[in-house]
Write a structure and sequence with these properties.
The chain is built from 16 helices and 15 strands. It is of the alpha/beta class. The protein has 2 domains: 250 residues, Rossmann fold (3-Layer(aba) Sandwich), CATH 3.40.50.2000; 181 residues, Glycogen Phosphorylase B (Rossmann fold, 3-Layer(aba) Sandwich), CATH 3.40.50.2000. A 7-stranded parallel beta sheet has the order 3-2-1-6-7-8-9, with helices on both faces. It is globular.
Length: 443
Amino acid sequence: MSTQPPLRVGLFTDTYAPQINGVVTSVQNLKRGLEELGHTVTVVAPRHPQQVIERNVIRLRSAAYRPQPEQFAAFPPSPRKVLEFRRRKFDVIHTHGLGMPVIALGVARFLGVPVVHTYHTRVRDYVHYAPMYATLSWLVDDDRWYAKGSRLSRRVSSLLHQRLEVSTQGLAARVDTWFCNRCLEVISPAAPMADELLEMGVRTPIAVIPNGINLATLTAPSLDPFPAHGVPVGARRLLTVSRLGREKSVDLLLERFALIRATLPTAHLIVVGDGPERAALEEYAAQLKLRDAVTFTGYVSSAEVGRYYQHAEVFVFASVSETQGLVALEAAACGLPVVARSEMGVIECVRDGQTGYLVDKDDAPAFAARTVELLRDPDLHAQFSAASTAFAALEGSHKTMTRRVLEVYARAMLLFKGWDELTLPDAINLARGQFDEDLERLK
């Protein structure tokens, strides 16, 4: 048990079960770790059509987000929900995601509670999901008829497309900075992302705390899942686990796998995950003449994904948008050497030359060569596998993450004493008092 007095923590998150992604995994592991230490945790998340009733999980009304249909955007809480939040008497609110944190910030200011935020998502890598971005991008695309009339029209269209990308990314960075500067502490899963937040203008203290993983679930002995997916006997199994979105660069991974396959014809790539780009990626694999060498499994539950890690040989990862790259740490926990592009958070989850290889993000031949090297050298593979397991056991435990997060909570609560009275004008305090009376009438 923790020596710290039990806390009442509100975890406000954009995504939660039954969705499967790195943020959900992180929130679930943090909730589990806090509860193991005797703290009370309430998760606040958008409603989901396939949700199940779960103790201490409050769902807000939501609607599917059109540019990203598998994602649900929450509406502001009703007065009854706010009353429920008051009854729970949160000591601290910890936010995760993009939209829900803004709601949580309003709730926290109203209730007089400190806010801590974990920066899971590098927003500027996801601008293609921004409202109206797709339409504007289509309008200024070089393939439009009005962009083909002359050299000037083509140049104007290309310039507008570049400006759209840059301006949208700049706006996303400003929103990130605005929000982070209204929290008392920010948690970054990796040092490179913390450095980038500082460059963006974030003045709030930033703590680097890698997300934890559920070692027991991942490493529990399990049956080989690959034969059921038609993976040939004797194939050299490469694995990636990823949401199939544009920002994850799975198309670049397929290109690198084509180079691997040219050198090692028995190599087979298993892609675990799903998303809006799946059909396009399957088509691209066929264009690269990899139809029989790549298996797309679709979504796999967090309870089952350990089976895939355990029975693969090398984990390959091409995304450079990760604030941490939690799947690389999960792979290491199962003794799987990792080959990844050296960029952003994934570099915190791989010890180059010890648990795997970090390769220049633009060097496809080196990526392929390192992967083939691990597949062809059993002694090297065994050495990396043992080092990976030890590294993940030390750095990946959800208990280690929880202890570090509790230290952040303690600092935030200490800084917050009297902060709400200093920052709320009289008009807002009066409105809060009136709203209290309205809430009482709903009891």
